[in-house]
Amino acid sequence: MVTALKQTLIDPSIYLPTYGVVRNVRPMTGMEKLFDIALPEGMSLGHKPGQFVEVSLFGVGEAPISICSSPSRSNGGFQLCVRRAGDLTGLLHTLTPGSPIGIRGPFGTGFPIERFRGKDMLFAPGGLGLAPLRSLINQVLDERSDFGRVIILYGARSPAELLFTDELAAWKARGDVEVHLTVDRGDENWKGNVGVITTLFPKVEVHPRNTVAVTVGPPVMYRFVLMELLGKGLPDGSIWLSLERRMKCGVGKCGHCQINHLYACQSGPSFSYAQIKHLGEAL
Amino acid sequence: MNPMIIPKAALDDWVRLLRSSYRVVAPRPLHGQHVFGEVGSASEFDLGYPTSVLPPKKYLFPAREDLLKFRTDAQQVEATIDGPRTVVLGVHTCDMHAMQLLDRVMATGYSDQHYLAHRNKTTLVSVECLKPCTAGSFCKSMGTLSTPEVFDLHLTDLGDAYAAEVGSDRGAALLPGLKAARPFADKDTARLNRVMSEKWPRFPLRLEFDVTELPSLLSTSYDSELWKELGERCLACAMCTNVCPTCYCFNVMDEVDLTLKSGKRLREWDSCQLDKFATVAGGHNFRTARAARQRHRFFRKGKYQTDAFGLLGCVGCGRCAEACLVHITPVDTFNELYRRQHQPAAATPQGG
């Protein structure tokens, strides 16, 4: 009998985390590390791609972090790719295998993968946006025959900041995934495309009525990527994005993640463009 | 249960009786204002008070509240859920409406056990408002001039006595033992009816439109120039949200003690009016302009909460109007939006 982690929130408190343990830490770039986390025996995260957890380090605080492993590869745990940015993530980066870590969640709705089946998938992550999208990409690849083409357009600031380079290479080597990379600034070894992520879009042609695009990246990226996708003729409802906010509670109370009337932690953070295009505070 | 009569002369006995089983809090006069605080006798509070600085919401949702306590040197964490059994005496009808909304918010989706624990240990004794309390209040326009059905006991001042209507078992439990209380007689019903019919004309209607139009008025006012005008005046001090009976946004933080070995996680009232409220990782702020923050606040009060919970997010208490240093008020704001939509030619800058 496996208990979903979320069940622990029913009693005694929705704010009480459960102790997990860091199984493995893998440096990714100078700024990001990949944490592999196990929950206590008999407990599972039971997440969907696009959902997030609240990560606790007691004495420092709690922060929302997207889950970057796919449910199809849970292996008794889950993974978080974390950029060192503040107090909590700074301390997180000092953790070693065996360190305890507080977890609540998973929160949010996740991407509606069941609505994507049968479609061509166009993934457009920017920078750290590949972390949450990796969860969905691997899920799609593990059910590869349910989907049409799989296209990945990934941009980072520099070659050193590209995440999951081994997996990008493996995806490309499969032969059934079209991978295009770009960096804002190259270096002496970089032979690929140089330019922002939008420079990759002219390289691919899609059937707009049969393609679902999923883009995750920094707020400034969305406006430009959306123009590319709308320019290719994709309908608003076929464009999905993740609106990251600083969810303090994850349970629809604290108000920090509110986008007009919507709480990103409850209705999102995965939204279709059709859901949010009329909201002044979304993009 | 039939209403009871509590003579005012017995109020002191009642408070002393209640204190044997409850913490009793009531509006206490302080520096010319009223503040809800613990009381030991009837001489310490005034049930005919105009308004309180902070709403009695603070007993259900304290300004600072422990959520968890933990050790940093061991895997040990537990929820902190407790608080004294409390009787809140003298809750105005607007604040009762606010608590009705908070009840719904905190029990919808994920139930907030910390709020609900306070709520279940709190007995609300509301009091009928018989005259307008401040220049900022507009309860009659908001439909909050009579109490919603969530009261435990409801008092109406009949002159030398209170009519006490029982709304729940919790409320009924406050009366046994008070020897001076007696059941309603016919003449009491007549007195109550007279008091009630005399009160309504004393309250002005201050909105220039029916409140049921408020959500749709806001829907079509999202791009109004008025928000910019309010933003230019707003000091972003967050007084409006601090005194609001329906605001419940909070921040969560950890505090460790001097040994660094143990600590607690707590929540503290936060405000959408403060600069950093909508800042995300990476530093982007989705509500940098004060105009956008004021708009967000008024949309929560007049539309978002109604859409999500079926109740208005503003109860017309007027505290924010009284607290605002630059005289931004809900009445003026809503009326001005209405005027601009219905008489565009007559639009004028919002007055104080």
Structure, explained:
The complex is a heterodimer of chains A (283) and B (352). Chain A has helices at 87-92, 113-116, 130-142, 165-174, 219-231, 264-267, 273-276, and strands at 3-4, 18-27, 32-38, 43-44, 52-57, 61-66, 77-83, 100-107, 120-125, 150-156, 178-183, 193-194, 211-216, 239-242, 258-259, 262-263, 270-272. Chain A is α/β, with parallel strands linked by helices. Chain A has two domains: 3-106, Elongation Factor Tu (Ef-tu), domain 3 (Beta Barrel), CATH 2.40.30.10; 113-276, Nucleotide-binding domain of ferredoxin-NADP reductase (FNR) module (Rossmann fold). Chain B starts with a strand and ends in a 10-residue tail after the last helix. Chain B is globular, with a radius of gyration of 22 Å. Helix content of chain B is 31%, strand content 20%. In chain B, strand 2 and strand 3 form a beta hairpin. Chain B has two domains: 4-202, no CATH class; 211-346, no CATH class. In chain B, the strands form two sheets. An eight-stranded mixed sheet of chain B has the order 3-2-6-7-8-9-1-10, sandwiched between helices. Chain B has a four-stranded antiparallel sheet with strand order 5-4-12-11, with no helix packed on it. The interface between A and B is large, with 40 and 50 residues.
